[in-house]
Amino acid sequence: MASTGSSPFPKWQLAILLGAPLAIGLGYLYLRNRLEDPDKKKLSELTAKTTISLDKEEGKDSKATESAIDRAMKLKGAGNRAFHAGEYDKAIALYNQAIETCPPDRPVDLATFYQNRSACYEKREMWEQVKEDCTFALKLNEKYVKAFLRRSRAAEKSGDLVLALEDVTSACILERFQVQSSLINADRILKALGRQHAREALARRRPVMPSKHFIKTYFAAFSEDPITKISLDDNDIGGFAKAKRALTSQEYDSIEDACTQEIDDNGKYKFEALLLRATFYLLLGRHEDAQSDLAKVIEGETSTKLKVNALIKRASLYVQLENTESCLEDFAHAAQLDPRNSDVYHHRGQVYLLLERMDEATSEFAKAVELNPDFSIAYIQKCYADYRHAQLNKNVGALTQVRADFERAIEKFPKCAEAYILYAQVLSDQQEWGRAEALFDAALAVDSNNATLYVHKGLVQLQKNTDFDKAVKLINKAIEMDDKCDFAYETLGTIEVQRGNLKRSLELFERAIELAKTELEMTHLFSLKDAAAAQLKVSERWGLDWTVS
Ligand SMILES: *[C@@H]1O[C@H](CO)[C@@H](O)[C@H](O)[C@H]1NC(C)=O
Ligand SMILES: *[C@@H]1O[C@H](CO)[C@@H](O)[C@H](O)[C@H]1NC(C)=O
């Protein structure tokens, strides 16, 4: 999450790294290869079945059946004309007759009639009837793409996102992922379902304090943090003083109560206490509590530094809640109050990066660095934003400049792991694997306990020569070092989807979800998990075996 400064890689980048921009596309990459492999009989049977039954149907020529089917076909034709004239009730009546007339040994035609009738119900927005008719059609013709797509639309409209996803997944598989509109529908449903699952999970979840490392990194992302800057007398026994000592000694669990004491006493540091308490509410994912405290600081009679810090934090919260407009309003307000505070530009730059508004991101980071050239994190993120900008605009000259800037960053901040990591990322994009690996090793020398570095090394192996085994080995090493490394579980889950190990991938995504810190992260992870779950369900129904042999 950009706004917490926890990871230089927004999560969506992983999918791009692995070559699939849509979550639903991940397993498909793998399945597509299998479908194109002539030896994989099971999968070719998939489409063969429908063709066979059609052939058989056409071979029939019993006289009585023929006339019954002829009549049914005529009724259907009349139904189609009524449908196109917008006379849906008349069309429904005609399709009803076609269904009644249709002989039982013509299941594929009968499926069409149900499908035709459901088109009328769809026009009438009668979603339950649409679903029912599509279900009839699918019982008669289990590989009927149109029925899957229509039932998916009706399910989406009536709020049954699980069915909507499963059906669109079936359609995508039958269409061999060649139909863009189905993939786009799948992606939209996945995002909505992921968000729904994330909210449900968050409502159930007991707030957990993030790791000490995470909290330290979070505070370090503010160069002008007004709370760490205050120095207090050791003998001060006020609530805020207690909270501040707990912050220094990393005893984070006692901070909330100490702040509350200061606030209830209406003490001298009441606003500082509100800001600190809000910060921990943010870290715990208690959004409403955080928002209420931050509003008190922003609207209260207090210093500009406190207000600006509160505005930046509230803006970042708005990003998580996907309220971009309020987020940018808060940043604008902060910039107006304190135009020389580099934190405002640095954090706003991260938001623009997340929104892929590269022009704005680069100019924000440039401003942050200009105001505070010794702040390593802003400096390096500026380099990275410049890189993304150059890459998007295919500007070779700018790319050369970015590399020189990164080299300078490493010299200037040799203890900053982020500098090595982001530069390594740039180099592996440029397919300079050896140099990228060396940089990840250099980062390990600076930050040897950082498990995510092994995940990055694993990703290089994947990009370099699709070496899944080597990548998995490295990522497992990350988990050994830190069994709370959510990035490792997510990456491994994504790899297992691509290798066709859907069941294993579900476990891994589940684990990553338990560790996710923000709603955005959870939404993304649930989308991955839901996509894998839908593919597993469809493949079990059709007896597809995706595992690597
Ligand atoms: C009825 O089904 C046929 C065959 O699939 C199709 O060509 C026709 O467009 C359908 N009519 C409607 C109204 O959906
Ligand atoms: C690992 O390194 C990345 C990049 O420097 C940093 O964002 C992250 O917080 C670190 N994590 C741990 C657990 O050390």
From TrEMBL:
<keyword id="KW-1133">Transmembrane helix</keyword>
<dbReference type="Pfam" id="PF13432">
    <property type="entry name" value="TPR_16"/>
</dbReference>
<dbReference type="InterPro" id="IPR011990">
    <property type="entry name" value="TPR-like_helical_dom_sf"/>
</dbReference>
<dbReference type="GO" id="GO:0005741">
    <property type="term" value="C:mitochondrial outer membrane"/>
</dbReference>
<dbReference type="GO" id="GO:0008320">
    <property type="term" value="F:protein transmembrane transporter activity"/>
</dbReference>
<feature type="repeat" description="TPR">
    <location>
        <begin position="308"/>
        <end position="341"/>
    </location>
</feature>
<protein>
    <submittedName>
        <fullName>Mitochondrial import receptor subunit TOM70</fullName>
    </submittedName>
</protein>
<keyword id="KW-0675">Receptor</keyword>
<feature type="repeat" description="TPR">
    <location>
        <begin position="72"/>
        <end position="105"/>
    </location>
</feature>
<keyword id="KW-1000">Mitochondrion outer membrane</keyword>
<keyword id="KW-0677">Repeat</keyword>
<dbReference type="GO" id="GO:0030943">
    <property type="term" value="F:mitochondrion targeting sequence binding"/>
</dbReference>
<dbReference type="InterPro" id="IPR003107">
    <property type="entry name" value="HAT"/>
</dbReference>
<keyword id="KW-0496">Mitochondrion</keyword>
<comment type="similarity">
    <text>Belongs to the Tom70 family.</text>
</comment>
<dbReference type="InterPro" id="IPR019734">
    <property type="entry name" value="TPR_rpt"/>
</dbReference>
<dbReference type="GO" id="GO:0006396">
    <property type="term" value="P:RNA processing"/>
</dbReference>
<dbReference type="GO" id="GO:0045039">
    <property type="term" value="P:protein insertion into mitochondrial inner membrane"/>
</dbReference>
<dbReference type="Pfam" id="PF14559">
    <property type="entry name" value="TPR_19"/>
</dbReference>
<dbReference type="GO" id="GO:0030150">
    <property type="term" value="P:protein import into mitochondrial matrix"/>
</dbReference>
<feature type="repeat" description="TPR">
    <location>
        <begin position="486"/>
        <end position="519"/>
    </location>
</feature>
<dbReference type="Pfam" id="PF13181">
    <property type="entry name" value="TPR_8"/>
</dbReference>
<keyword id="KW-0812">Transmembrane</keyword>
<feature type="transmembrane region" description="Helical">
    <location>
        <begin position="12"/>
        <end position="31"/>
    </location>
</feature>
<feature type="repeat" description="TPR">
    <location>
        <begin position="342"/>
        <end position="375"/>
    </location>
</feature>
<keyword id="KW-0472">Membrane</keyword>
<keyword id="KW-0802">TPR repeat</keyword>
